[in-house]
Every structure is written in structure tokens, then in C-alpha cells.
Amino acid sequence: MIIQDVINHLEALAPLAYAEDFDNVGLLVGNKHTKLTGVLVTLDTLEAVVDEAINKTCNLIVSFHPIIFKGLKTLTGKTYVERVVIKAIKHNIAIYAIHTALDNAIQGVNDAICKRLE
Questions:
Q1: What is the pLDDT of residue 39?
Q2: DSSP bridge partners of 59
Q3: Helix ranges, the chain (H)
Q4: Helix (H) or strand (E) holding 29
Q5: What value does the CA radius of gyration of the chain take, rounded to a whole number of Å?
Q6: Which member of 14, 81, 99, 113 has the lowest number of beta carbons within 10 Å of its beta carbon?
Q7: Among 42, 19, 21, 38, which Cα is nearest to 105's?
């Protein structure tokens, strides 16, 4: 199994076309053709999350919120976003964000909220 296999499953559940125009969803870091060693699911991709992925030998992080939102102009390690991206690349960890694609999907976040509220 490769990372793309997980992406195919995620995008069948929450197609990227469902995402809002302002959002940054999909594979943000990494190579989709890499052999999968494990998946870590998180709300936000923080430095501690990348450390956990390293410790658990997971090379794919599926995050609700995108770590890269408006783009990066530098990769110097000055901000936590830059440090996360650098560390992920250094350890061959891919990062996939699903945010508003999952919000807007049938049986997604908003659908679950609406059902709960009736």
C-alpha cells in the first residue's frame, strides 16, 4: 500500500471539490507514491504530532486543519509552521489536510452536526 491508496479513500469520502475556495486541502507535504508505514490522524499538525508520527513510524499525517494555509515564503524554521514542514520533509512524512472537504461532505462534519441538532 502507498500513500495514494489512503488519499483515494479519503477523497472518496470527502472529494476535494467539496472544499471551500479559500481552503488548502489535499496532500500538502510529501510524495503520494511512497510506501505507507502508518497513518496518524490529528486535528492540527503541531510539532508534537510530527514527533509522535516519527516515534510510531507513521509516514502519513491526516490532519483536519491544513498546516500550510496561505503559502510559505521561507523555510528557515522561524515559525512553528516552518518547523513542522521542515521536520516532516526531513523524516519523509507526508501531510494531508481534509478540512472543508470533510465539513461539506455527505456524512461529513456539517452533516453530523445537522443530524445531531435535527
A1: 98
A2: none
A3: 3-13, 47-55, 80-90, 99-104, 109-117
A4: strand 26-29
A5: 14
A6: 113
A7: 19
Residue 69 in grid coordinates: 494555509
User: Would you list the DSSP string of 34-45?
Assistant: SBP--EEEESS-
Question: What is d(CA 94, CA 28) in angstroms, rounded to the nearest whole number?
Answer: 7
Residues in the chain: 118
Picking from 21, 13, 43, the residue whose alpha carbon sits closest to that of residue 100 is 21
80-90 vs 47-55: helix crossing angle, rounded to 10 = 20
Written as one letter, the residue type at 94 is A
- 68-99 CB burial, b ≥16 within 10 A, e <16: beeeeeeeeeeeebbbbbebbeeeebbbbbbb
Residue 34 amino acid letter: T
Q: For the whole model, what pTM was predicted? A: 0.94
Residue for grid cell 513510524:
57
Measured distance CA(118)–CA(109) in Å, rounded: 14
Residues 10, 32 contacting (CB under 8 angstroms): no
